[in-house]
């Protein structure tokens, strides 16, 4: 018997390869994991409601803080527009001189807007500030007031170092008599902004860690309640991933549902606050610039809920599988 005949005989005696079953493959397995996760949720309604409620409450706290922080950043940005540098001149500027100074100032960089204030305009503003006491300015002529250029800076150039550098460059321009920019106010304002950002970052990090801890321990209750089922599946030969996958999908569903509930509750609280704010506030939040979270923040919250549910399930499974 030659070698070719021996190989054919051995191949004939070996069992043939199992044909693929219907529904196998990535799509079929994913469908099974999703169906199994939904069955698990229906079979353990109470525990899943507690888990979703915990995720929703935790994310609601985070989103409330985020809403306050976003509006504080918006208010700080509006306040920072008051960071204004004023240069004074001892005479009225001609149109040619105005153009020349504008060109030199804008060449420094970081300039958003330059406004010329004549002596007549300065006197008009002065009278506006003394509304009701205009008699104090009787006999006052515009000639006693200086002319000026009011310079508004771009947002990226409003920190203390940038303002000081800009003012130093202004003082080197010939013809400028005096420069004022409220040095102490700018310094205090930037210190306040940096402090609020630091507090926000620390508090946000603490809330994220706390949420992950709460979610992980809550999901552990779900897995612990079904520890016997997991043990049986392991004994009959199920792989680790086959056991874990439905729980990971379940965590994703729980996290997404919790995040959606949190965003819905936050929007309801926001609308309720706007509707009743007039009764306990001296200003109208709707007209003062108070706004809801931008779409990108809402998307980030929903994605965070999904990731929290996934990570909570993953860390909880390590103890049992």
From TrEMBL:
It is found in: Cell inner membrane. It comes from the Bacteria. Gene3D superfamilies: 3.30.70.3040. Keywords: Cell cycle, Cell division, Cell inner membrane, Cell membrane, Membrane, Transmembrane, Transmembrane helix. The keyword Transmembrane helix applies. Residues 203-320 form the ABC3 transporter permease C-terminal domain. One of its GO terms (biological process) is cell division. It is a multi-pass membrane protein. The chain crosses the membrane at residues 45-70, 195-216, 257-277, 297-317. Its main location: membrane. The keyword Membrane applies. GO terms for cellular component: cell division site; plasma membrane. InterPro entries: ABC3_permease_C, FtsX, FtsX_ECD, FtsX_proteobact-type. Residues 83-179 form the FtsX extracellular domain. Residues 1-10 have a biased composition (Basic residues). Residues 1-22 are annotated as: Disordered. NCBIfam families: FtsX_Gneg. PANTHER family: CELL DIVISION PROTEIN FTSX (PTHR47755:SF1). Belongs to the ABC-4 integral membrane protein family. FtsX subfamily. Forms a membrane-associated complex with FtsE. This is Cell division protein FtsX.
């Amino acid at each position: 018997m030659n070698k070719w005949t021996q190989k054919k005989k051995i191949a004939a005696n070996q069992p043939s390869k199992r044909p693929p079953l219907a529904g196998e493959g990535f799509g079929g397995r994913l469908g099974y994991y999703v169906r199994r996760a939904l069955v698990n949720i229906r079979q353990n309604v109470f525990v899943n409601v507690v888990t979703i409620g915990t995720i929703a409450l935790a994310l609601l706290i985070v989103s409330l803080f985020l809403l306050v922080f976003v509006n504080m950043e918006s208010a700080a940005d509006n306040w920072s527009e008051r960071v204004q540098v004023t240069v004074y001149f001892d005479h009225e500027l001609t149109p040619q001189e105005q153009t020349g100074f504008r060109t030199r100032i804008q060449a420094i960089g970081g300039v958003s807007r330059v406004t010329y204030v004549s002596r007549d305009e300065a006197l008009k503003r002065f009278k506006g500030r003394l509304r009701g006491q205009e008699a104090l300015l009787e006999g006052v002529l515009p000639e006693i007031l200086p002319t000026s250029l009011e310079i508004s800076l771009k947002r990226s150039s409003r920190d203390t170092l940038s303002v000081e550098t800009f003012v130093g460059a202004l003082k080197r321009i010939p013809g400028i008599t005096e420069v004022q920019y409220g040095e102490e106010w700018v310094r205090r304002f930037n210190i306040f902004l940096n402090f609020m950002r630091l507090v926000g970052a620390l508090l946000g990090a603490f809330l994220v860690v706390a949420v992950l801890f709460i979610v992980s321990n809550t999901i552990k209750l779900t897995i612990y309640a079904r520890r016997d089922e997991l043990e049986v599946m392991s004994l009959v030969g199920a792989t680790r991933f086959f056991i874990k996958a439905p729980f990971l999908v379940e965590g994703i569903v729980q996290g997404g549902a919790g995040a959606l509930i949190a965003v819905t509750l936050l929007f309801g609280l926001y609308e309720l606050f706007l509707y009743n704010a007039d009764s306990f506030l001296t200003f109208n939040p709707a007209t003062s610039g108070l706004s809801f979270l931008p779409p990108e923040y809402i998307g980030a919250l929903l994605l965070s809920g999904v990731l929290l549910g996934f990570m909570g399930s993953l860390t909880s499974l390590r103890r049992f599988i």
